[in-house]
């Protein structure tokens, strides 16, 4: 089963004169595999539909009280299957990540170094989330060897690999 | 579980391969084999197989044992065969070369060494192909780079089987009409399947994965890359088909081979367009030495294939287009091999030594294991020497050829010394070199299992 959609209300940002696009994209990047995004906005965010479509999300928009709009973005079924360590059951029940890392611009093997270092800082049971530009093949066995669990897959455009790492007991 | 671990015996394959590269170039400097003997003289055959099996074959099998699991994100099947395969291939090669050497020295057939060598090589390459193919089959559907490797393995099997028939005929073990016809007409096909099918298609496939990785370029398979695969498949099928045709009719036409060469030319052009596009679309602006040295190899590939198709150029290149074959083997295959070794050996050493302590203690970067400035001089000398040696073959100057080869040998030894320094971690500054808890890599043997 897919995790419940993440909710993001951009009305306060717009009301204070801010630009919500960055916040929306950060929220999208942080979605778990298969997770949707429920967005609240003071208008029907037409340009966003196009952007989200290119990232593999469909949308359903409805008007709510006060002329505001609620939009549910759901990932299309074309996303790649989720891979996970052998002991990573119910990854959708893991707590929200304590740390987010964007490693998409780093050369291999630097992303591996950063993730292993970040995992060392986590308390047992805590989760980190990272974005990479490719599948970290050599990282997986090292995480397993250290007792960490992981789950991840490519996003719908197949250009970014998303991984959740849940720290195991300190060994 | 997905993921890839270090291949235990890959460094041993690389070490043996480098040794054969030095030996092969050394005997050329000494004036053994073409152009000091005929292209089909036993001396030349011994030399060619030291380079094709000893250097390129071991290099490629060793690299695939490590990288096929990376290409398909699944563990290697039958990994325990890696060491027996290495021993089979090395002993088979030594017997084969011994057999050719006997023919050269005594002018006699070698009844024992050639067939036995062929048997060991068929077994060794057969097992290697089976391990790699089983890994690929288990991971279907395959990404495009892995499909190139699959094609390369088919070509490897065809090459080795034809080679085994040759060995049986040359040793006098078999004297059937078909086998003799195959020996008379099939040598160019054997060479094309080995150098073009097995080594080149596999290298092309692996490069489609490694280049985007090292340059941070988009990795999705393009239409042109797929066309390269189809053209390569069709050329391979034509060559194999013509050999089968020889069984039925020993006057089989040359048409399929000419068409296969044309397809290979088209595939080369498309591939070169692909690597140029990858370079243009890279997000990493400053590229490392292994990439720059690889692009020099692409230039050699382009020149050698295009000139080979032009009849006048091929005729000027000596017996069998020897100068262009030389450029193909040393500029393209060996150049690319050395360029990738220059990246792969430090990376695998880094992972082997520091993998278990990453994130816990400060470790050097992969590039700290090598000295790029010094190595780039070696690569410049290497490619300059290859160009000079190719020119000397065109000019039919044996003396200049040997002089150029001496420089080429020196550059190769310089690069190998750089790889040894990377293995010994000699370029890493002292406080970072051996952190507590990090195993010390051996030069070319794996670390014992309990330490892993």
From TrEMBL, chain A:
Residues 7-74, 101-165 form the DUF2249 domain. InterPro entries: DUF2249, TusA-like_sf. Pfam families: DUF2249 (PF10006). It comes from the Bacteria. This is DUF2249 domain-containing protein.
UniProtKB/TrEMBL annotation, chain B:
InterPro entries: Cyt_c_oxase-like_su1_sf. The chain crosses the membrane at residues 12-34, 46-74, 81-104, 116-139, 151-175, 195-215, 227-248, 254-273, 294-317, 323-342, 375-394, 400-420. The keyword Transmembrane helix applies. Keywords: Membrane, Transmembrane, Transmembrane helix. The keyword Nucleotidyltransferase does not apply. This is Transmembrane protein. It comes from Rhizobium fredii (Sinorhizobium fredii).
